[in-house]
Amino acid sequence: MELEHNEMARLYAETFHNIEEGLILTGTVIAVKENAVLVDIGYKSEGFIPLGEFRENELAALQPGQEIEVFLVHINDSEGVVRLSKERAGKIKIWEILVKAASDGTCVEGRITEKIKGGLNVDVCGIKAFLPGSQIDTKSIKDLDGLIGREMSFKVLKINNKRSNVIVSRRAVIEEERMKQKSRTIENIREGALMEGTVKNITDYGVFVDLGGIDGLLHISDISWGRINHPSEFFVLGDAIEVMVLKFDRENERVTLGYKQKHPDPWENVYDKYPAGMKVKSKVVGITDYGVFIKLEEGLEGLVHISELDWLPKLKHPSKYLTIGETIEAVVLKVDKEERKLSLSIRQTKPSPWELVSERYHVGQKISGKVKSLTDFGAFIGLPEGIDGLIHISDMAWTKHVKHPSEMLRRGQKIEAVILALDADHEKMSLGLKQLEEDPWLEKIPSRFRLGDEVKGTVLNVADFGIFLELDEGVEGLIYSSEIVNTHKDGTDSEPSPIEEGEEIWARIIKIDINDRKIGLSMKNLHQVKE
To answer: How confident is the model at residue 80, as a pLDDT?
Structure first.
């Protein structure tokens, strides 16, 4: 008995000798009192922890016999008081975790609590750590307030025991994860493989896609089989898309991607699917100054040139006819697989105005229209069907020598004319203005003017080859240059004066050509004395 007592005394002495202030010990909960929790740490006196170190839910869960870690704050043997701290034990344990994480690069969990100058504060199990702005992410984050309250993993960059400073990094975690992703992705990359990725950046020449730690370039030419102006027509930042690996340079880690290659080229069998003359119904996807683009199917578009929008000779801007998204019917005109061009027509789905004209009009018919334009050779007359007919300058007057159509007509004037010729196949119509009246050369002029008659007229025009003279009732005659005689206007023997426009003179008819509708005149050998 004496030996056993001595052995127990020795063991107690060793135990008490190993219990010192500043140690972290494992204790057993004895009871929860009004002001403290009593804990047995194997010392001759029980230790106590103030209730303020426990949350309400922790107190409710405490049971006698439960083991907890405590920090030995103070021992007073004379009073039998052993003061313990659960908080300090926890902080020391956490600090040890942080020190270990800083040395071996492991991650710790924390919650972002507030925004401060230069970065954010992070609560790592009760320890305040600083997250610099440069260490928040691999890219710039504009909305830091949106991160407050979020729990994340961090790397411990720096730790100072004396000053209790901890600096953490979220960027290091992201970069490490990206490197792991990159290794896994590179193992799976092979040409021809389909891969999931996220649109990371959009440029004028293409799209950068994050495949998981490594970026691939999707060039604009590999986005669609059809027409594309900018990659943003197809993608937005953050889009999850499936792409095909076209080429992989493992040494330089460059990946070339394709999007259109996931589907067959629609131009391969375009001749069979869209033969010339076929009618199609499609949506308008683009409007330009020179025409309208129609989407026949994914990657296959056709152009309706502005000249094929309407039968009207003077066309408006394509936007006046159609809007983007509108469904229209068109006729396939021409397909060129090599040039990847498909021409369409909208106007040919409607009857040609020349077809209507050929049904409604005939040669000799009198029509009404407005003068649309004047040229040196004639006037174009617009008809209600949207076509123009031409009145040649030679068909404007029977007897008058018309130098320019403006002498007879003006733009916008409403007139009547007679159809002289109609060629619907070549879209031509000839009109006559003088044909509205009877041809005076058939009876009237031959009966009024005879060879040898001496006539008085007004000079219309003086040319190198002769003088045009206006006779009665608008009939014109030509005094040949060889038949001109300059007279003395003052009756003296002075030098003869040249004949001028507007002057009235006498001449003799020396030629009447009914077929060519010409009267030839001469100023020689006049028999009558003229004043």
So the answer is: 66
The answer on 53 and 19 residing in a single domain is yes
Provide the number of structural domains found in the chain.
6
Cross-strand bridge partners of residue 458? 470, 504
Q: What pLDDT, on the 0 to 100 scale, is given for residue 377?
A: 92
Q: Are residues 160 and 193 in the same domain?
A: no
Let me know if residue 477 belongs to a domain.
yes
Report the candidate in 99, 86, 118 with the shortest Cα–Cα distance to residue 166: 99
Are residues 343 and 288 located together in one domain of the fold? yes
Evaluate whether residue 97 is within a structural domain.
no
Tell me: do 12 and 56 sit in the same domain. Answer: yes
Task: Give CA–CA dist 169/155, Å, rounded.
Answer: 5
CB 400 within 8 A of CB 474: yes
- Domain with 35 in it: 2-89
Q: Rounded to whole angstroms, how far apart are CA atoms 209 and 194? A: 13
The per-residue pLDDT for 163 is: 54
Q: What angle do CA 464, 467, 471 make, to 5 degrees?
A: 165
pLDDT, tens digit, 9 for 90 and up, residues 511-527: 888 787 788 889 888 87
| Structure tokens, 239 | 């889009």
Is 94 part of a structural domain of the chain? no
Mark the ranges of the chain whose per-residue pLDDT is less than 50: 1-6, 8-17, 493-494, 529-531
Token couple for 492: 């003296």
The domain that holds 240 is classified in CATH as 2.40.50.140
What digits encode the pLDDT tens for the residues 186-234?
888 888 899 999 999 999 999 999 988 889 999 999 998 887 889 998 9
Give the residue from 302, 306, 311 showing the smallest Cα distance to 343.
302
